[in-house]
Amino acid sequence: MSPTNYLLLSGLLFTVGAVGVLVRRNAIVVFMCIELMLNAVNLSLVTFARINGTLDGQVMAFFVMVVAAAEVVVGLAIIMSIFRTRRSSSVDDANLLKY
Amino acid sequence: MTAPPIEMASGVGSLAWLLFVLPALGALINLLAGRRANAWGHWLGVGTVVASFVLGLLIFFETLGLDPEQRSREVSLFSWIASGSLNVDFGIRLDPLSLTFVLLITGVGSLIHIYSVGYMSHDPGRRRFFAQLNLFVAAMLLLVLGNNFVMLYLGWEGVGLASFLLIGFYQDRPAAATAAKKAFLMNRVGDVGLAIAIFLIWLELGSLQYAEVFARIGEVPSGTVLAITLLLLLGACGKSGQFPLQSWLPDAMEGPTPVSALIHAATMVTAGVYLIARTHPIYDLTETGRLVVALVGVITLLIGAVIGCAYDDIKKVLAYSTVSQIGYMILAVGLGPAGYALGIFHLLTHGFFKAGLFLGAGSVMHAMNDDVNMRHFGGLARRMPITFVTFGLGYLALIGFPFLSGYFSKDAIIEAAFGQEGWQGWVFGGAATLAAGLTAFYMTRLMIMTFFGQERWKDFNAAASTLDPASGSSAGHDYHPHESPVSMTAPMIVLAVGSVFGGFVLYSIGLYEWLAPSLGELQELEGGALPHALVPWLVVAFSALGVLVAYLLVGRRPTPVQRPEPVSLPVRAARRDLYANAINETLIERPGIWLTRALVFVDNRGVDGVVNGLAAGLGGSSGRLRRLQTGFVRSYALSMLGGSVFVVAALLAVRFA
């Protein structure tokens, strides 16, 4: 199968993730959309590694996974504590940090 | 001219450094020992100066024993400044000129120190006073003893500092503080001139030692020589209270009276005369420079004499008399080889009688509760006989009564002034003669108002006793004139004796020959505007006229206690110092204030405006920009996405365009 298809899928997933981040209010869903974007990028990285016949892209993908895992830990903890204090998981409600 | 060979001093002369170290030590100990020294500090001050005087006498007699050619000696102490091409040794020049000054400074200084013990006996700051007097004597000795211009400058500034401290001795009086500041500032104007002159000399000759500078001054272009002489004259004007820097000297009378006697009559103000006499090899080269010096002297001696006629403050009259007499000295040294020695001669005799007059004035003030207004005095001759007699002798010496000291020295100057050729002889001689008449007038007026006539102070006592005695308002006017203690009258007697015989003795023992190794032979002038034999008669006639006019105007009618107002235009002008202060204010002070105001305005509006405007602009735009931070997370996400897309699009566009 042509690598172009993988790239198209990757672009599609990324778009879905980006639109999800922009339009959804639930912090958990936004978070999952971010994961989706990260994994879309992973997919394209691996694809490019395949195209070029080197391992660079795959190594980069591992880095992204590690960072994503760490981010999940911190992000979920933040979402949990915000939910505990404000009884809401809407990102629009967390708007105190402004001008 | 050929410089006399300079030899190293041996014998007592090699101890010359002790001359100024002793008073400096006295000042140091008195300042550092604190209250512990209150009991004996003043005697230490007297002791160090007297010791300096004795040492000065020893060196003087040792020098007298030498041949006239060998009387200029040097003592090299140590290398003071050694930096590249600028090398200055700390050395002493012992020659007739400096020794003459040493004897005057330490001699008159000793008498005034002794007088101050009595005069300041009730003052809590007496120890500080003696420390500062000692500092002054040390600085003055350094000034006259140095063998190079840097040491001269060191002493010059030291004298300025001591004078500032002593004028402002009564720190709690605003007038004294202002007078001290004024003296310091006006001295500074002159000091700048002296400093630039020294820079110029070094620039031209690369040396500041007197011996080398005077030997090589002929190599300097004549324009530069003229500049150096004029700048040196500016320095002399500042220190000696000469036109146009004369107005600090009368204000300096805010200090204690011994200070007025020591600094502002006998020694410090003569530093300018010393400077010109010392640098006479430079002045010898420029006719124009000497002419300017003489003109300054003439203007000043007239100014001083005219203003002296109008004041009622006994110390200010004497101060303006000092201004006028130093004008004579400056005129004399401005006459060139015919006058250098005459200027120093008048300086010496003036040192005696003016110090005596000031001490007498201090004695009168001491008796009159520190009142200085002569209109409150009167009839004091019977109350204070010793003061009256000593003051009277000083007075006769000052107005040039025949065969008293002022007669010899002042007449010699006027003769030399008339001895000039052409218009200069008439102008210089005429002005000096006129001023001699004015001197006789104002001094006679002072004598009559103080020592003769009705006892006007009694009216104040009577008036005061009718006031409420408990209020204490009468304290300032409750006069009980009495003779001063022996420690005050003894120096006055010594100085009075000096005033009477000093001129004759100095004249007959050959002061001019003694000074010749330093100042060159005194030139006898031939011809000139008036025959020499006529001049003494003329001067005595003018002086007698002055005395007569003063007797007719002041002595024959009662002196009003209140100053008469309104008065004629000349009197009004003289009372206001011939508008010297007004002129300084209009020409220097006000433009200075305007300039500083303009600069402050530029600083506030211009420099600060740019900085503040920048900050305000940044602050304002930041205030608007922060509205972008809405707190709406998804809009941040959108802008991040938009930004990323834009960057990627831009990259692609660059790549494939």
From TrEMBL, chain A:
Subcellular location: Cell membrane; Membrane
UniProt feature coiled coil, ranges: none
Keyword Repressor: no
Top-level taxon: Bacteria
Pfam families registered for this protein in UniProt: Oxidored_q2
Reactions catalysed, as given in the entry: a quinone + NADH + 5 H(+)(in) = a quinol + NAD(+) + 4 H(+)(out)
Keywords: Cell membrane, Membrane, NAD, Quinone, Translocase, Transmembrane, Transmembrane helix, Transport
Membrane topology: Multi-pass membrane protein
Transmembrane region(s): 6-23, 28-49, 61-83
EC number: 7.1.1.-
Gene3D superfamilies: 1.10.287.3510
Major place of residence: membrane
Subunit structure, as described in the record: NDH-1 is composed of 14 different subunits. Subunits NuoA, H, J, K, L, M, N constitute the membrane sector of the complex.
Record function comment: NDH-1 shuttles electrons from NADH, via FMN and iron-sulfur (Fe-S) centers, to quinones in the respiratory chain. The immediate electron acceptor for the enzyme in this species is believed to be a menaquinone. Couples the redox reaction to proton translocation (for every two electrons transferred, four hydrogen ions are translocated across the cytoplasmic membrane), and thus conserves the redox energy in a proton gradient.
The family this protein is said to belong to: Belongs to the complex I subunit 4L family.
PANTHER family xrefs: NADH DEHYDROGENASE SUBUNIT 4L-RELATED, NADH-UBIQUINONE OXIDOREDUCTASE SUBUNIT ND4L
HAMAP family: NDH1_NuoK
This protein's name: NADH-quinone oxidoreductase subunit K
Organism classification: Bacteria, Bacillati, Actinomycetota, Actinomycetes, Pseudonocardiales
